[in-house]
Design a protein that fits this description.
The structure holds two protein chains of two kinds. By secondary structure, chain A is of the alpha/beta class. Chain A contains 24 helices and 15 strands. Chain A has four domains: about 20-115, Glutaredoxin (3-Layer(aba) Sandwich), CATH 3.40.30; about 145-350, Rossmann fold, CATH 3.40.50; about 355-445, Ubiquitin-like (UB roll) (Roll), CATH 3.10.20; about 455-570, Up-down Bundle (de novo design (two linked rop proteins)), CATH 1.20.1440.230. In chain A, strands 12-11-15-13-14 form a five-stranded mixed β-sheet. A four-stranded mixed β-sheet of chain A has the order 2-1-3-4, with helices on one face. In chain A, helix 11 (about 220-235) packs across helix 14 (about 330-345), helix 19 (about 465-485) runs antiparallel to helix 20 (about 490-505) and helix 22 (about 515-525) crosses helix 23.
Chain lengths: ~575, ~170
């Protein structure tokens, strides 16, 4: 396929879609499937078959449409009419919608989401532009929405240096959590000398409570491939790897099909879009190790070894896969690349706050009414995210904390709800942007117990290579357990703080260095809860059971018991 | 260590080994492809026996210690046979906040095993996952790879009972 043919295919598919008098988009993301989306699709398909499958009616099984807790979702598109979205759709309701639409009557209002629903209206969808709008397994539908046009533009109109400069101008920073300037990283790898270079997309989304990467890989796989191909052209690589988490078989399968389709269409492989650029992409499946999200551990895993991190420098930009310069970005970062060249680096840079430009995808979940996947401009306040987009807390609960960044992040208290969400501000609060999990907690969550939960995760996931992380996490966990069961003293709290600082300062990689963050941030904002556990032996949230005694109280109690005994051992 | 693992006649005769052989051939017996090969092997056999690991090591020309090291490093690989059915309770943050611990406790009680174990009759393996990425369904679990959620302790136990009863009715 050359550039002209790409444009023709886009135009033809678009015309076909515009000629439809009715397009039905059923969300087939995992949560919607669990809620019964497949039955909805089957019912609609059956009705369409009965009508003789007219060419001007289209039924599309899409990826994630966003408000996951309200599935199955059905979006209806009619020419010259605003789009309408129904929640909790049953096969019967779907068929009623279809038949009333065909008779051009008023569509049923049952379960219809309001037009100006903040969940949709407060979002800016760049990375998720196609999620929930296209069939993820259809290359044509991706192309119809401007897919691979950015790659064509880069290959035919820009030099590799121009591409790197464009990414620098956009102000894009790593979306996996680190926040390093993507453009600078690309330039660094481009300048590295080495025979071969590699591009790696990090799809090893290990943070518990985060599913942006899964959703993106499942809903819009071509976007990631296009972003990687542009990166390959910019840095001078001919091979890329997508590292997909082992727990995400659907994502791997969709990417696999997307690669095959793109290769067949001449959009990947040799002589991409009739240019001299060749680029192959292979998939590597992870095997369940959180540490593989760390870049050097990830590289070890791609090379078939234990996923253990190593000392940097040398950074992967100089010596990565098999010692060659390697560019590693998160899949969401690659997902931003086609958008940057679609709307232009300047327009991308116009969105955002301070040094954080563009948008960020969050998985909004926990005790919040509207669970789901959202994409918001950087700099939006947490209050807007939780109370406007999220619709507040479930069961009228009071907001206690928002957890971002998973086991490497921290908890943000209610008094900081108006802080703009960006890299710098979250870091100042002792949390991190992380990959984008945002878990809302109500008054029923105990912050000490939450810290212990994350520490248990880290001790289990520590690769065991460096001592501070291997043994430090275990000791921190023990101290937290003692606070939770009521056997800790004030001195334990001091030890805890010292130990956290030590593990943070001396660990080999990001996993260990960030592991104390949940403890440190809860100590900072919810110290009174720790104090209540220790001094009053009381869990303010009512989560922990205080069934052990601290040593000094144990002595007192023993003395009391002994003094209550007669000299023959019997009680008075 | 001759490396010739096919002298273990049982393994050599196993038709499932063909799948593993085919995968290794496709990946050109590259040592770097170890994780891919182990994925295929586990899919074919359900678990990785010491014999199987030895065979893979010999074919990829890797020390057995390295293969064993990789197989034990990753949570995904199991060196023990699994039950006929599997139930995995997600213990990710969102599920945890919404009460996954209670669900797991009830399931352990109902099945009479701890997470990570298999019932004595080999019918059910109960496990936990760090996060299955379906946080909007929290608290969620999977039974034989089918996703269910949001669950309560009662609804979860019900799913398990159904699972354990079906083979009885057939048998």
């Amino acid at each position: 396929m050359n550039r002209g043919e790409l444009a023709e295919l886009a135009e033809a598919t678009l015309q076909k879609q515009q000629a439809c008098r009715l397009r039905l988009l059923v969300c087939c993301g995992t949560p919607c499937v669990a809620a019964g989306a497949e039955a909805v699709v089957a019912a609609l398909r059956e009705q369409l078959t009965r009508l003789g499958n007219p060419a001007d009616l289209e039924l599309v099984s899409t990826g994630c449409q966003g408000p996951c807790s309200r599935g199955p979702l059905l979006t209806v598109l009619q020419p010259d009419q605003p789009e309408q979205v129904w929640e909790k759709v049953t096969p019967e309701l779907a068929c009623t919608i279809l038949s009333t639409a065909l008779q051009q009557q008023q569509l049923p209002e049952q379960n219809l989401l309001p037009k100006d629903w903040p969940f949709f209206s407060r979002q800016i969808r760049l990375v998720l532009a196609n999620s929930g709008r296209i069939d993820p397994e259809s290359l044509e539908q991706y192309i119809a929405r401007g897919g691979y046009e950015s790659l064509a533009q880069a290959l035919h109109e820009m030099s590799p240096d121009d591409v790197c400069d464009g990414v620098v101008q956009s102000g894009l920073r790593g979306r996996g959590g680190g926040g390093y300037s993507t453009g600078l990283k690309w330039q660094l790898v481009r300048k590295s000398s080495g025979g071969r270079k590699f591009v790696v997309a990090n799809g090893d989304e290990g943070d518990p409570g985060a599913y942006m990467d899964r959703s993106l890989m499942e809903s819009d796989p071509h976007r990631i491939l296009e972003g990687m191909a542009i990166a390959g052209y910019a840095i001078g690589a001919d091979q890329g790897y997508v590292y997909v988490r082992g727990e995400y078989p659907v994502a791997a399968q969709r990417l696999h099909k997307a690669i095959k389709d793109a290769e067949r269409a001449g959009l990947l492989g040799s002589r991409v879009l009739d240019s001299s650029f060749s680029f192959r992409i292979d998939i590597r499946i992870g095997a369940g190790a959180f540490v593989c999200g760390e870049e050097t551990a990830l590289l070890a895993s791609i090379m078939g070894r234990r996923g253990q991190s190593r000392i940097r420098p040398p950074y992967p930009a100089e010596a990565g896969l098999w010692g060659c310069p390697t560019l590693i970005n998160n899949v969401e970062t690659f997902g931003n690349i086609p958008s940057i060249f679609n709307i232009g680096p300047q327009a991308f840079n116009a969105i955002g706050n301070g040094k954080s430009r563009g948008t960020k995808v969050f998985a909004l979940c926990g005790e919040v009414v509207n669970n789901g996947l959202i994409e918001v401009p950087m700099g939006i306040s947490l209050r807007e995210v939780v109370f406007e987009i999220g619709g507040g807390l479930t069961n009228g609960m009071n907001f206690k904390a928002a957890q971002t960044g998973g086991p490497s992040g921290g908890c943000i208290p209610a008094e900081k709800l108006d802080t703009p969400v960006d890299y710098e501000n979250l870091q100042a609060l002792g949390s991190i942007m992380g990959s984008g999990g945002l878990i809302v907690m109500g008054e029923k969550s105990c912050m000490v117990d939450v810290a212990r939960f994350f520490m248990e995760f880290c001790l289990d996931e520590s690769c065991g290579k460096c001592v501070p992380c291997r043994t430090g996490t275990v000791e921190i966990y023990r101290l937290l357990s003692r606070i939770c069961n009521g056997s800790a003293s004030q001195r334990d709290l001091q030890t805890l703080e010292q130990l956290c600082q030590m593990v943070k300062d001396t660990s080999l990689c990001g996993l260990g260095a960030a592991a104390p963050n949940p403890v440190l941030s809860t100590l900072r904002w919810f110290r009174q809860e720790y104090e209540a556990h220790i001094n009053d032996r009381r869990c303010p949230a009512g989560v922990c059971t205080m069934n052990e005694l601290p040593l000094h109280l144990l002595g007192e109690q023993l003395l009391q018991r002994i003094s209550a005994l007669r000299c023959d051992g019997e009680e008075y | 260590m001759s490396g010739d693992c096919c002298k273990h006649t049982e393994l050599a005769d196993d038709p499932r080994l063909k799948l593993v052989e085919r995968a290794m051939k496709r990946l050109q017996y590259q040592p770097d492809a170890l994780i891919e090969v182990l994925h295929t092997a586990q899919e074919a056999f359900g678990y990785l026996s010491r014999e199987l690991l030895g065979h893979v090591a010999a074919q990829l020309k890797l020390p057995e210690s390295q293969v064993f090291g990789v197989a034990t490093f990753y949570h995904f690989f199991t060196l023990r046979p699994k039950g006929e059915h599997s139930c995995i309770v997600c213990t990710g943050t969102a599920c945890y906040v919404k009460g996954a611990g209670e669900i797991l406790g009830r399931l352990e009680q109902a099945a009479g095993i701890k997470a990570g174990q298999t019932t004595a009759d080999g019918k059910l393996s109960l496990g936990t996952a760090r996060c299955l990425g379906n946080c909007s369904l929290a608290p969620m679990l999977t039974v034989d790879d089918v996703v269910y959620g949001p669950e309560t302790p009662d609804s979860a136990v019900e799913k398990l009972h159904g699972l354990l009863e079906v083979p009885h009715e057939q048998g």
